[in-house]
Design goal:
Largest sheet of chain A: 7 strands, mixed
Strand content of chain A: over 45%
Strand content of chain B: over 45%
Shape of chain B: globular
Structural class of chain B: mainly beta
Largest sheet of chain B: 6 strands, mixed
Largest interface: A-B, 28 and 28 residues
Number of helices of chain A: 0
Helix content of chain A: under 10%
Order of helices and strands of chain B: EEEEEEEEEEEE
Oligomer: heterodimer
Chain lengths: 113, 117
């Protein structure tokens, strides 16, 4: 079974730009979550989507948004990039419920200059 | 509020030594789930174990073992006879039982383990 895939793997943007990251979950998984990892703040939950609906959301500004498509693939968008948005963005997929383990993708390394 | 504390920032051991990674959590819920993940230099988080709050039985998987104690809110991870390939950052995480079954993993700050030959 193929694992979680994320594209692109690396991205360099400048302040003020916007970016879209993509995540394809494991086949059969309906839940997709996004996390931001930075040296200062560690791993922080961004949001979770299930059946095309946002089911949970972390404490991030509205510049961070996401969506999920009918095939469970998900995208996250960050508008008006700031230097502090430089991070590793990890996507995780799981079957359905909060006790199911989440399987993580390799991440997208975003650098904002 | 939920919180996961991994007080050990970095541990360095010599190969074949045993090492224990500590994890202390805080939650008001009676039903919750605890996880351990490994993050090698490649960056991808690798799932190691899940334990629910009703199951305090310790678990052993090869060289890995986990000790879950609700009385002290701890979920510690021990690697026996460590190997260089065990070098990675290890994260402990907490997920609470939610009415809508939604996900929200709360991670600890991680423990970097360096196993020297």
């Amino acid at each position: 079974k193929a694992g979680v895939t994320q594209t692109p793997r690396y991205l360099i943007k400048t302040r003020g730009q916007q970016v879209t990251l993509s995540c394809s979950p494991i086949s059969g998984h309906r839940s997709v979550s996004w996390y931001q990892q930075t040296p200062g703040q560690g791993l922080q939950f961004l949001f979770e989507y299930f059946s095309e609906t946002q089911r949970n959301k972390g404490n991030f500004p509205g510049r961070f948004s996401g969506r999920q498509f009918s095939n469970s693939r998900s995208e996250m968008n960050v508008s008006t990039l700031e230097l502090g948005d430089s991070a590793l963005y990890l996507c995780a997929s799981s079957l359905e419920r909060e006790e199911d383990e989440q399987f993580f993708g390799p991440g997208t390394r975003l650098t904002v200059l | 509020a939920q919180k996961v504390t991994q007080a050990q920032t970095e541990i360095s051991v010599v190969e074949k030594e045993d090492v224990t990674l500590d994890c202390v959590y805080e939650t008001r819920d009676t039903t919750y789930y605890l996880f351990w993940y490994k993050q090698p230099p490649s960056g991808e988080l690798v799932f190691l174990i899940r334990r629910n709050s009703f199951d305090e039985q310790n678990e052993i998987s090869g060289r890995y073992s986990w000790n879950f104690q609700k009385s002290t809110s701890s979920f510690n991870f021990t690697i026996t006879a460590s190997q260089v390939v065990d070098s990675a950052v290890y994260f402990c995480a907490l997920s609470e039982d939610r009415k809508d079954s939604s996900y929200k993993l709360i991670f600890g700050s991680g423990t970097r383990l360096l196993v020297r030959p």
